[in-house]
Amino acid sequence: MSVLNLLVRRHPGYSEPVKSKEEVIVHCGFRRFRASPLYSQHTSADKHKLEKFFHADTAVVASIYAPITFPPASVLLFKQESDGVQNLLAVGSLLSVDPNRVVVKRVVLSGHPFKIFSKLAVVRYMFFNREDVLWFKPVELRTKWGRRGHIKEPLGTHGHMKCQFDGQLKSQDTVLMTLYKRVFPRWTFDPYVPEPTRWRDGVPPRLEGEEKMD
Fold this sequence. Notes:
This is Pre-rRNA-processing protein TSR1 homolog. Pfam families: RIBIOP_C. The chain is mainly beta and about 210 residues long. The protein folds into 2 domains: about 100 residues, Elongation Factor Tu (Ef-tu), domain 3, CATH 2.40.30.10; about 80 residues, translation elongation factor selb, chain A, domain 4 (Thrombin, subunit H), CATH 2.40.10.190. It is about 5% helix and about 45% strand. It is built from 2 helices and 14 strands; from the N terminus they run ββββββββββαββββα. The strands form 2 sheets. Strands 3-2-7-8-1-6-4 form a 7-stranded antiparallel sheet, with no helix packed on it. A 6-stranded antiparallel barrel has the order 9-10-13-12-11-14. The two termini are about 50 Å apart. About 25% of the residues are buried.
């Protein structure tokens, strides 16, 4: 077992939204199993941003725990609906077998200027205790209007902090701090795949509740 990175693209016939870590049926080479992939951007960098949804306009990398398979193996992703029908979700190929591929999740903290001076400002509502301000002091700050700055020192015990920027802030500006955290795919490998419900004479199958209503 290892981490398989699948380079896939949405099939144009499937238009429903697909979240990251949702269970899908994977056809990888000669194997067929269920897993919950972690979607990330396909770039040439050494760190790749997590995608919360499987977007239809670009190719993404789906990372899963699965038996080792040699690339380039063909890949098909299916989504099983509540009525048992398996719809084709995406097509692609096996990109690599690499557990060291780094996928990071971005989190943005926001605060508001409380008192504004020439290039200094007192910011609140980003943190709520003194220890957090000291812990995140080395991280760079930015604002929605393009200012850059850093934390100088905490003020008091309720998370207020004195910050210095490259220019004077506006009262309606927002102070932001971008943080990144590495995430890993879930161990959701399941070799059992239920048989899909078949259509009869071009008519889709109905649910049990619909049959009882008739």
